[in-house]
Design goal:
Elements lengths: L9 E7 L3 E8 L8 E2 L2 E6 L2 E5 L2 E2 L2 E2 L24 E2 L1 H9 L4 E2 L2 H4 L25 H19 L9 E6 L5 H13 L6 E4 H12 L4 H4 L5 E7 L4 E10 L5 E8 L7 H17 L10 H18 L7 E6 L11 E6 H12 L17 E2 L2 E2 L6 H11 L7 E5 L6 H15 L4 E3 L7 H13 L6 E2 L6 E4 L8 E6 L9 E11 L3 E4 L1 E4 L12 E3 L5 E3 L3 E4 L9 E10 L5 E7 L6 E6 L20 H12 L8 H5 L1 H9 L7 H13 L8 H15 L8 H9 L12 H13 L6 H16 L2 H5 L10 H9 L6 H18 L6 H10 L15 H12 L7 H10 L12 H13 L4 H8 L6 H8 L12
Parallel strand pairs: 1-10, 10-11, 12-19, 14-21, 19-20
Antiparallel strand pairs: 1-2, 2-3, 2-6, 4-5, 7-8, 7-9, 12-13, 13-14, 15-16, 17-18, 22-23, 22-26, 23-27, 24-30, 25-29, 26-28, 29-32, 30-31, 31-32
Length: 920
């Protein structure tokens, strides 16, 4: 049902929270309508449905036969064929059975180092547990809300109402785009986004609209501190008064993204309880990732009980046993009210000075695969935020988030801010932090209609186009200044771009994390090294003309902060503004691309180098003897310097020149060897430049044709070396295709080899060994099979004859921290532990590569689902010390650290191009 003239009947706000999903609504055509909470019907026990204002943002994936069909019956038809349980019952079941609960999906949406659209949750679950992607999990909560709403309001479907969905203020463009994708998957394609701290403040404005002038009479700057289950957000809202004395509100600053919230507090308490449960238990009791997640749910309940009003002196946390030992194998530990208060208050809200800054570093806590903030002190993060956003300290405070139901936390934060400014703050009352954001989303919709006060401020950040001028790739030009109004398109007319239709185009953007003073203006150049900036996922598109021509065209960039709340960038033809192409963020998992290869400086002698390539592989037949072909690399090095010094922009120009002349490789076996060798070298490691995905696409088109000179062993070897070198740029599907050939070359019998297709290139065991180890995107189970083959090779060779190549490959296949793959596809830790026992049987003093392999198999990540057990870790560390292994190797096993250049080179099999750094 829609209202008059097709208008929506309701304004609906949805808070898709890390912990709970909440829905509020108001009648759209009644200016005096009250905002109500939508009670969401959900399973509260097997076969029992109840309506609750909070839908826990949880999915439980039951085992086959675990629940009867009648146990999961809802009032509406279910479309989830996997019969996942959502909401209150999911929380209950997840607390009883480990490894089957999907939680914190919202936090995963902002975790760029995994494929957020791949089925990776529950993180660390057994292979027989159904998996879902963070995007799909988020979509399932929204789809559930839609089904519940449409059951209650069949004549006013949710998808036809005016919808507002809330997100953390600190979500970057990638996370915002994925949130919108989740909404589209749930059948809610049309909605607006509003930031959660703003929504919380809109709720205050709506509740206090009759007395707002008096409430804010002495207020000039408001801090909204929103600490939810998974994230912490800070926002500053400035208050001024117009000539009539009415408050004018402007959101002036937004904090950085922090994966820090109630989940971290539950985790800290779980670590305490785990230690107590292990006391007196022989050998300790370190829980698996699944069991720790189960314990966290129990600790969350204990925390909320002990921090509530009239809390008891203590609470008992019980972790049930597994399987047949469900009761007899249970363990319990007591925690007191004082302990929880001290841990949460002093651990997460310690007393700090305004000059203190939050600790930074890449070696933060990594539990369940999530990179939690390294510094757990929210008050230190707040101090850093206020230092960055200069001006008067806030005189008024609005707290939001379930953690502030604990009075001790609210008091500590208020006391800390009062200490910093030397005077007490005004505290704005939030009557229900659990639902304020959803109600505020509705108030925002009312404000957009002119029926409630509205917060101004426009874009919370400035956005910049990263430039590629010679020697100045750290510079960027402002394309959308902070404060730009929503819906207002801004054209960067000072810069023109010559682009070719039908070919991909990519731009790199950055956004400011904070700006002191006046924000940069449109077209202003900034130094990315001089402040704190965040590089966004690249923007990309293929500019297709209606006629399909391939001509060059001159374009400008047009940028707008949409009414939906996302950044949108178009290429607009200079000659015809009606021709425009939308650029989309590339959100698939991948390491950070370094540099704008097409625009960076390259050697002035590149022209001579391309002429040499043309002479060997060009279309015009030239008399070139075999020696000249063989020496092409040496000739290139004479003009360009040693190839180890060739940086990424130069390498990619050479690759492009070779790719344009790919047909010339067929002239002779020598031509093909040289072409394959140079082409792979110039595109390694398969990513790192803006156009590398396009280059991989062009190169992959050659795969099915194989090599021309298939009887030449060196040609075959160079073929596999090429694909190993560029493996980091290949998709999962492409790597699986390589795995098929890997398996054939290793396993085919004589009869099968006799019928081998000519296009399936032969490969030696060593070729296959090095290739298989480089396929990081294949599923972990396949890697385990490759590793099993390598272990057999080691056992067959014997203690004294372990092969260096085999040990290197085992290090890559079983690595705890992949270079280009997603962390969810590593080999399971139990299998790796078995491999380590095989390595321990070798003499590490005589076979140093065994120590190298063991180091990478035992490398600490901080993620329990990937890390080996403590006892085995101690054994590996003791052996490394006994053989005098390098200090970095020992550190890699004992703490979370990064590889140095030498170990990166050894692990990859060769050096990376200068200037390209892998974060891994």
């Amino acid at each position: 049902m829609r209202g008059a003239e097709g208008k929506p009947a309701f304004l609906v706000g949805i808070d898709l929270g890390t912990t709970n999903t909440v829905v509020a609504y108001a009648k759209a055509n009644d200016a005096q309508a009250e905002i109500n909470l939508f009670a969401i019907e959900q399973l509260v026990a097997p076969g029992e449905v109840g309506a609750r204002p909070l839908l826990p943002s949880l999915r439980y994936h039951p085992a086959a036969g675990e629940l009867a069909a009648g146990d999961l019956q809802l009032p509406w038809p279910q479309q989830d064929l996997e019969h996942a349980v959502l909401g209150t019952l999911a929380r209950q079941l997840g607390a009883q059975v480990p490894g089957r609960l999907v939680s914190s999906a919202k936090s995963w949406l902002s975790h760029a180092n995994v494929d957020r659209q791949a089925p990776i949750l529950p993180w660390g679950a057994d292979a027989d547990v159904a998996k879902v992607s963070p995007v799909a999990a988020s979509a399932s909560y929204l789809a559930y809300v839609r089904a519940a709403w449409n059951h209650r309001f069949p004549h006013a479907p949710l998808e036809e109402q005016e919808l507002v969905l809330t997100i953390p203020a600190s979500f970057d463009e990638g996370a915002r785009a994925l949130t919108l994708e989740a909404a589209r998957m749930a059948g809610l394609p049309t909605l607006r986004l509003v930031e959660e701290p703003q929504a919380a403040f809109y709720d205050f404005l709506q509740r206090r609209r009759a007395t707002l002038r008096d409430d804010l009479a002495d207020t000039r700057r408001i801090l909204v501190c929103d600490v939810g289950g998974g994230t912490t957000d800070f926002s500053l809202i400035d208050v001024a008064f117009d000539d009539d004395g009415e408050p004018q509100l402007t959101r002036s600053s937004v904090g950085n993204h922090l994966i820090l919230g109630g989940d971290n507090m539950d985790l800290a308490l779980a670590h305490l309880v785990e230690t107590r449960m292990a006391a007196g238990n022989e050998g300790g009791m370190k829980l698996s990732a699944a069991r720790l997640s189960q314990l966290m749910e129990r600790c969350r309940a204990a925390k909320e009980l002990l921090l509530s009003h009239d809390a008891p002196e203590s609470a008992t946390v019980t972790l049930l046993g597994a399987g047949s030992r469900l009761i007899g194998g249970s363990r319990s530990a007591d925690v007191t009210r004082e302990e929880v208060a001290a841990m949460v208050v002093d651990g997460f809200f310690p007393k700090v000075e305004l000059g203190d800054t939050a600790k930074k570093g890449r070696a933060g806590i990594v539990e369940f695969g999530l990179p939690y903030a390294q510094d757990a002190a929210i008050t230190r993060h707040l101090a850093s935020f206020l230092q960055q956003h200069q001006g008067a300290l806030p005189d008024t405070l609005l707290l939001n988030g379930g953690v502030f139901r604990a009075d001790a936390l609210a008091r500590r934060l208020a006391e800390t801010l009062a200490h910093w400014r030397g005077a007490p703050l005004t505290i704005l009352h939030n009557d229900n932090p659990d639902v304020a954001v959803a109600r505020g989303a509705v108030a925002y919709a009312l404000a957009r209609r002119g029926q409630a006060p509205r917060i101004g401020g426009g874009s919370p950040r400035s956005y910049f186009l990263v430039l590629g001028e010679t020697g100045k790739d750290h510079r960027a030009v402002c394309i959308l200044p902070r404060g730009s109004a929503s819906g207002e398109e801004i054209r960067l007319t000072e810069r023109l771009f010559a682009l070719r239709l039908g070919r991909p185009v990519r731009f790199h953007l950055a956004t400011s994390l904070f700006e002191a003073g006046t924000p940069p203006q449109l077209g202003e150049i900034v130094d990315l090294d001089a402040g704190e900036y965040l590089r966004l996922p690249p923007l990309a598109s293929v500019l297709q003309a209606e006629s399909g021509d391939k001509r060059d065209i001159t374009v400008q960039l047009a940028t707008v902060m949409t009414e939906v709340g996302t950044l949108e960038v178009h290429c607009v033809a200079e000659a015809d503004a009606g021709q425009r192409w939308l650029l989309e963020f590339q959100l698939r998992a991948g390491k950070e691309e370094q540099g704008d290869g097409e625009a960076q400086a390259v050697s002035p002698r590149i022209k001579e180098a391309i002429e040499k390539i043309e002479r060997i592989f060009g279309g015009k037949a030239q008399k070139v003897d075999t020696k000249e072909v063989r020496q092409l690399r040496q000739h290139l090095e004479r003009g360009l310097g040693g190839r180890e010094s060739w940086d990424t922009p130069l390498l990619r120009q050479l690759f492009d020149a070779l790719m344009l002349r790919a047909r010339g490789r067929r002239r002779s076996a020598e031509h093909e060897r040289v072409w394959l060798n140079l082409t792979g070298y110039c595109l390694r490691p398969g990513y790192g430049d803006t156009l590398d995905p396009w280059r991989i696409e062009q190169l992959w088109a050659l795969f099915d044709t194989g090599v021309q000179h298939h009887k030449d062993n060196q040609v075959c070897a160079e073929w596999w070396t090429l694909w190993r070198r560029v493996a980091g740029g290949l998709s999962t599907e492409q790597q699986l295709r390589l795995l098929d050939d890997f398996a054939f070359n290793l396993q085919a019998d004589a009869a099968q080899r006799g019928s081998r297709p000519v296009t399936l290139v032969n490969g030696s065991d060593v070729d296959m060994l090095r290739l298989g180890a480089s396929l990081e995107r294949i599923p972990g189970a396949y890697k385990a099979e490759v590793g099993a083959w390598l272990i057999k090779r080691l056992e067959k060779a014997g203690r004294e004859a372990a092969d260096t190549n085999t040990l290197w490959a085992l290090a890559r296949v079983g690595a705890r921290q992949p270079f280009h793959g997603s962390a969810h596809e590593v080999v399971d830790s139990a299998t790796v532990a078995e491999w380590l026992h095989v390595l321990l049987a070798l003499d590490w003093k005589k076979t140093e590569p065994a120590a190298f392999a063991a180091t990478h198999l035992a490398r600490m990540t901080g993620d329990r689902s990937r890390d080996i057990g403590d006892e085995l870790r101690a054994t590996i560390l003791a052996r490394l010390k006994a053989v005098g292994a390098p200090p970095l190797w020992q550190a890699m096993v004992s703490e979370v650290t990064q590889l140095d250049e030498a170990n990166t080179k050894r692990m990859l099999g060769e050096a990376l191009p200068p200037g390209l750094k892998l974060i891994g």
